[in-house]
Amino acid sequence: RNLNTALIADAAINGKHETMYSALKAAEGAGYIVERINASAKGNEILWDSENDVFCYLNDGNIVYIPSSVEEDKQIKNSADYYKLWKIYDSVPTEQTYSIYLAGTAVTGAVEAKVGIDVGNNTGIPTITYNSDSEQDVVIRTNGGTLIINATNSNSEQVHYGTLSSAEIKTGTSCFYTHGTIGTMDLKAGKAIADKGGYVGLIKAAEGTQVVEQNGGVFVIPSNATTAEIPESVVTQLSGYSVSEDTIVADATREANSFYGIGSLEQLKAFRDGWNNGTITITKVKLTADFDLSENNWYPIGTWEYPWFGIFDGNGHTINGLTANSTDADHKGLYANGDSVGLGETYGFFGIVGNGDASISNVSFTNVSINIYDGKDVGAVIGYVPSLAKFKAANASGSDKFISTDKWTDDSGVGSHNVTISGVMVSGSVKGASHIGGLVGKVYTSGTLKIENSINRAEVSGTGSNTAGFAGYINGPSATTFISCANYGAISNSAAGSVAGIATYASGATIFESCKNEGTLSSASGYVGGIIACMQETNDTLTFEDCENAGNISTTGIAAGIYAGNYGAAAFKGKIVFKGVLKNSGELACDSTKSGDVIGQFSEKGFNSLNALSDITRIDTSELNEKITLSFANKVNRGNDNYTISLNIENN
C-alpha cells in the first residue's frame, strides 16, 4: 500500500510511469528499495502493473492486488496479459511470462526477449533481440548497445526508452516508437515514430525505396509510391527490401544496396561528429531534405585521423549557407591542418578525404561563404585529398609533419583512392591563400579524379598559388577527367599564382570534354588559362574536346583561352590531343608574345617550340579521299625565328 502511495504522489508531479525503472525510482524516492524488499520476502514477489501503474504481488502463482488499488475488472488476471506485469530478475529467464526487469549491474552478454524488457542499471548488454508474433504492446528500455526488433503481428507495438547506438527494426504493418535516443536505425520494414522527445540520428533503407515522414512517423516505401499512398502501402505489408513485391531479399543483397537517410540538421551533425571521432563508419548517405548551415561556422566531415570516404548522394537537395570564417591569425587552426603544420588550413564541407573511394553527387551548395585566413587546400565541397606520403605519423620530422596517427603509416590504400564528383553546383564566395577551388582545393591521391556535369558560380579568390573555378591543384592522380563542367564565377589571384576556369594544374592522363569558362579570370603575374593553366612535367596525354572560353583574361604573365601552357624546366613533355571545336571569345590582356587564343607558351623541351595557337575547327575526314587543309589564324613564330609544324593524322 505504501509503495502505491509513493507512485501516486510521484505521478501527480511527473505523470504516469512508463517503465519499471521510473516506477522503482519513485518508490526509492519515498524510501522503498523494491529490489531489496523482494530479496528478503518469503513466498511473495512484488510486481509492477504497467497498465494501471500500481504495484501488486505474486503469491504462490496468484496475482494479488492491494484492496482498492485497482478496480477488479481492470486487474490483470488473464495469463495472455501477463506481459503487462513486470517482475524483477537477476538474469534473463528461459521461460518468459512476465516482462523482465534486470536487477543490479552485473548482467552482461546478448539478451533475447519475447516480452518487454528493462535493463535497469545494467550497462554491459551489447544486444537485445525481441522476437514475437504475439498481439502485444511491449516496452523496451535500454542503456546503449543494439536493439533488434522482429515483430510480425500487425496489431502489436513496441515502445522504446533509453539510449541505443543502433537499432534494426522489422515490424511489418505494426509500429515501433522511440521516446529515447537512437544513433542509427535500419528500418527494414514497417513504420517507426520518434516522439515525446525521441530522436533517431540516421535512418537506413534499401535502394529502390525512400524514407518518408508522415504524421510524425517514418515509412520505408517503394520509390514510386506517393505520399498519399503511404497508409495503404503500410496496410499491405510493406517491405523495406523490395519495390515490386512484399518479399524480403537476401540480407547481403540489401546491405550492398542500402543507404542512410539524413533529413535534419541534427542528423547531419551527428553523422559528421560520429565520423570524425570514429564511432560512425557508415559509407553510404543520402540526403532526404534541404539544409541551412548559415547560422554557424561548419566544421568539416573528415579529419587526418578519420578521413572521409564513401558515397554522398545529395538526392537533388540543397545545402545553403556553408559558412567558414577564420579571417585573422587569432583564428588560425579552427579546421584541419593543411600540407604541414603551420602552412595553412584545409577546409571544405568534406575536409580531408582518403582511405577509400569517394563519390559526391546531386547536391547544390548555395550562398557559400568561406574565408580562411592562411587557407591552403580550400574548396566548398572538398578541401584536400592527400596521397599516402602525406599520411605520416604524428611524430614525423621536418616540413611534412602532419596531424595524423601511426595507423596510416603502412596502409598503402589510404592515399590511392578514386574521387568522383557529379551533378554538383556551387555558388557564393570561396577565399583563401593557396590551392583554392570552387569545388576542390587540392588532390594528391594516386588514384583517379573525375568531375562531371557540375557548375561553379562562386567567386573564388586566392592570395598565394593556384586558384580555379573547380580544382585549385591536382598532382598525383593517374587519370583526371572533367566532363561537361562550366565555370561562371570570377576567379582571381592577387599574387603570382596561376588561375583557371576549371583547373590550374594537373598531372597524369588528363581529359577536358565539353568544358567552358564564362567567368572573368585574373592574376597579378601568373599563368592564366580559360580551361587549365599548367600541366605537370610528365609524358602523359592531355586531351581537349569541344572546350571554349568566353571570359575575359588578365595577367602580366602568359595566358590562353584554353591552355596557358608551360615554359622552363617544368615543361609538359606529353602528347596533346585536340578533338572537336576549341575556341576563345574572351579578351586576353596579357603578355601577347607568349599567349594564344587556344594555347599559350611551351618550352623547346615540350611541344617542339609551339608558341601560340589560334582556334581549332573540327576536321571531318569521313568523306575526304586525298587532301586535308589545316589553317591557323595566328602566325606560328617566336620573335624572328621560324618554326615548322609537323602534322600527323592517325586513325582517320
Question: What distinguishing features does this structure have?
Answer:
652 residues; mainly beta; 7-stranded parallel β-sheet; 49 strands; elongated
Shape: elongated
Beta-strand portion reads 35-45%
CA-based gyration radius: 33 Å
Indicate the mean pLDDT: 79
The helix count comes to: 6
Q: Considering DSSP H and I runs of 4 or more, what fraction of the residues is helical?
A: under 10%
Low-confidence stretches: 225-257, 330-334, 337-343, 392-412, 603-646
How many E strands? 49
Helix/strand class: mainly beta
N/C terminus separation: 99 Å
Largest sheet report: 36 strands, mixed
Characterization of the model:
- This protein has 652 residues and is mostly beta strands.
- 8% of the residues lie in helices and 42% in strands.
- It contains six helices and 49 strands.
- It has a 36-stranded mixed sheet that branches. Strands 21-23-26-30-34-39-43 form a seven-stranded parallel sheet, with no helix packed on it. The chain has a two-stranded parallel sheet with strand order 35-40.
- Helix 6 (265-276) links the parallel strand 16 and strand 17.
- Helix 1 crosses helix 2 (20-29).
- The relative contact order is 0.04.
Gist of the model:
The chain has 652 residues and is mainly β.
